[in-house]
Design goal:
Helix content: 25-40%
Number of helices: 5
Distance between the termini: 21 Å
Radius of gyration: 18 Å
Structural class: alpha+beta
Strand content: 15-25%
Bound molecules: 2-amino-4-trifluoromethylsulfanyl-butyric acid, cobalt (II) ion
Order of helices and strands: EHHHEEEEEHHEEEEEEEEEE
């Protein structure tokens, strides 16, 4: 996830544009929600969005298959008593053995090869001495670089038998990703994705994290555009075939506010409530989308 500075619910004209272009909102997406269809490709390129070639998409698809194999491997080791450091080693060694590189390791100083986020941890949990306990939920977020291509996906798993709150937040987070993905097709905009997710999650009495967003991915870890999981329909960049990005809603059982711990990474809910997340890497196609990190939702 990329750090986000503004809440498009209340974007000021002079704020950085939420599309991630680096320009001011008033000089960027503010007056362009209805850019005509034939201009959408040029418009995306002006926003520094790298439209991927079929060859690049194939490379990201291969990286994506490795990411899914890695998630499945970790899933088989999740149980009460598992130490997060050991799950990190599992991801690291498997990735290297397959000739790939774990993208998190040393990324902006991140010290480990996978993010493991337990219970009230929203994202960017650092593996270490913590042990999984019966009833926990744990998000496993894997990003692999294979032959120079990046793919990024995560799932939240139950440790042992979940309680009612755990079942609820994991179900709402899972559906939030599914509902966001359903909006992905040429002509729809980034704002349509966020609107669909936010309206669903809030209808369930949950809240959507604002500080971290989905992102372009494939040739780099975090590319333009940003993909907020909240927003207004018809706003922001319009989707065109060949765009590759993640959707990765972080959904809290309580309030949306977060705190980052002193380690500089671990983001936790301010109210201590449970948080869950699912993430996939998608490519926009002529008719909709294809997941490059597919798993059933
Ligand atoms: N995988 C995260 C994402 O979905 C980013 C993790 S950055 C790290 O964007 F440094 F914490 F690994
Ligand atoms: Co991501
Ligand atoms: Co991720």
């Amino acid at each position: 996830m990329k750090k986000k500075k503004v809440d498009p619910g209340k974007i000021s004209r002079n704020a950085p544009c939420p599309c991630g272009s680096g320009k001011k909102y008033k000089h960027c997406c503010l007056n362009k929600p209805a850019s005509p269809q034939p201009d959408d490709l040029q418009y995306a390129k002006r926003h520094r969005i790298r439209i991927k070639t079929p060859e690049q998409i194939q490379g990201i698809r291969r990286a994506g298959r490795l990411v899914i194999e890695t998630l499945d491997l970790v899933a088989g080791h999740i149980r009460p008593g598992a130490v997060t450091e050991e799950l990190n080693t599992l991801v690291h060694d498997f990735t290297i053995r397959r000739g790939a590189v774990p993208a998190p390791l040393n990324y902006r100083g991140f010290p480990k090869s996978v993010c493991l986020s337990i219970n009230e941890v929203i994202c960017h949990g650092i593996p270490g001495g913590r042990v999984l306990e019966e009833g926990d939920i744990v998000n496993v977020d894997v990003t692999s670089i294979l032959e120079g291509y990046y793919a990024d996906a995560s799932q939240t798993y139950f440790v042992g038998t979940p309680g009612a709150d755990a079942r609820k937040i994991v179900e709402v987070a899972r559906q939030s990703l599914a509902i966001g993905m359903e909006t992905v097709k040429p002509g729809n905009s980034v704002g349509d994705i966020g609107y669909a997710i936010q309206s669903y999650a809030e209808r369930q009495g949950c809240s959507v994290v604002r500080e971290f967003v989905g992102h372009g991915v494939g040739l780099d870890f975090h590319e333009a555009p940003q993909i907020p999981h909240y927003g207004r329909p018809g706003t922001g960049v319009r989707l065109v075939p060949g765009m590759v990005f993640t959707i990765e809603p972080m959904i809290n059982l309580g309030k949306k506010e977060l705190v980052v711990l002193d380690d500089g990474w671990t983001a936790v809910t301010k109210d201590g409530s449970l948080s869950a997340q699912f993430e996939q890497t998608l490519v926009v196609t002529e008719t909709g989308f294809e997941s490059l990190t597919p798993y059933p939702l």
